[in-house]
Amino acid sequence: RYDDVDTDIKNIKLSGKFNGRDGEANLGLNIFGTNKDFSLTYKDEELNSVISFDRVDENILNKIIPIREKKLDLKNINIEDIKAIIHYSDNRGLSIKTTMKPNNSEFKGIELNDFNLYISSKAGKNNLNARILTKIKGITENIALSVENQKTNTDIILALKSPVKDNIIPDINIRGKIENQKDILKANIDSNIVDFNMDYQKDKKLAKIYGNKFTINYDVDKKKLTDGKGKIPFEIYHTGNYLDFIAKDNKIEIKELKLADKSNKNNTFIAKGNANLDNGEFSLNYEGKATSIKRKVKENDLILSFDGKGKIENKKNILTSQGNIGNLSLEYIGKIEKINGTYNFKKVGKDIEANLNTKIASIGYDKYKFENFNLVANYSGNQVKIKDFSNNLISLKADYNVDSQKINSNVSINRLTNKDVYLDKVEFILENFKANIQGDIKNLQGNIDLGSTIVTLPSKDFVKVTGKVSVKGDKVNIDGINLDNNLITGQYSIKDKKLDLKASLSEKHLEKYYGGKDLGYILYGQVDVKGVAGKIKAIAKGRATNFEKNLPDLAYNIEYNTDNYSDGIASIKDLDIIDRKYGDILGLTGEVNLKEKL
Question: How far is CA 359 from CA 31, 315, 334, 341, 356, in A?
């Protein structure tokens, strides 16, 4: 047992077999409760060995005491099939190739998807190459690292590149040359973001970081920025930028921080102010003019553009910001245009308060568009309050608790027509819609009053739709929806995609639906609909009776079966023409295949 490992190492067995210069050694032991065997062979002046572990997880890592004492969150670590192939020969030198199966292990928001490491050493030249596939907060990134060391010189190449073009995280390419002399360490860093050099005096522990237009002197021992000045140019997101500054004794005057679009120099973001590195206090005034950012987020373009002016500062550990928002537009799947208003923000310790008071010109998705919204919102004490999100058609008010993940919201629609949502295939007028949704965000419940909807049929007649629906968890209960005098009740399970509906029919004006002449029939009956995920069985039974004219009744029994809602087969079990005085006149059976349009 070792002091730093909380497990017994037992059943140690060592054996060997040698024949002249060639030979083989084998080691067996039990560690972390698992029997392991290791072998090493030397043949033809080559040394070869394979070291493998079945897995490394939270349980094993926490048996290593220095790791356990750090109290790290390792519950999502589950690495398997760890293998290191070791080779040594005078001809090829030393090489170690390591592979593993990370199983999407995650630590502090970084997910590991693939890992390969190759190390070699020969004639004083040491090389390391690593290729890593990872996700940072859900965003896929490829990382490639190459290090070459020979005597006092080390070359480093680091590349971070997303497989998705224009990802929200920019590509990073860094080339570094490090010269390790007796008294000084020199570094030259070239990257696609910023270039700089560094001289580090080992005895004095002083670092000088410099470029063509700037110099920074830093005392590593005292952790203090001694002095500095100049312009630091840098690039990010296709913008050409710079930081113009003066620094002394850990205090920085930011003369100008400017971000400018390379394709349109009128699109700028400028900040000015000061910062104190001793106490972390700073004060910045900013102004953005036609600032625009375009990035790829999970296969869709995110485009953000805005004008704005405001202030952000941190004093006595209180972070505050306030400002004006001008013509802020956001496009991602949908489009929000021209948000104008004010905001303020305050953070004291872990307590945050923020207020937003704005007007939104339009909110759209595809061809649907709503205009002229007010948005008044507040965040305080882990509570999000949407005090007013409304226009002349729609109104939303909501409270959401971030800690408990509970919501209470009310939505109402005063009046909405098909023209408001750019629908031309159906005409309707919806009025007095109301909904209350509340409870745990994972188990919502609520009540919906559909108000009154007048739908114009192709015959130019009208159908009035009213009713109530309730939601509890993944169950949608249709408490009663009326289409004129016809009543629909039932339930739908969102999780199971299970449907169970009943419709009670009492329709006096059948001509509205088929567009013909009113023959005076009244339709009575019931329709039962059951199914799962589009596989539907519906049974309709009833009678059409004529009281106004001397016409026979119609009795029907029809069954409909389908695997995808619409393309099914309607089986006519019975369709009887009945004279009320003399009885049955004619009976029909048959089927209609809707998929073949027969």
Answer: 65, 31, 18, 6, 10
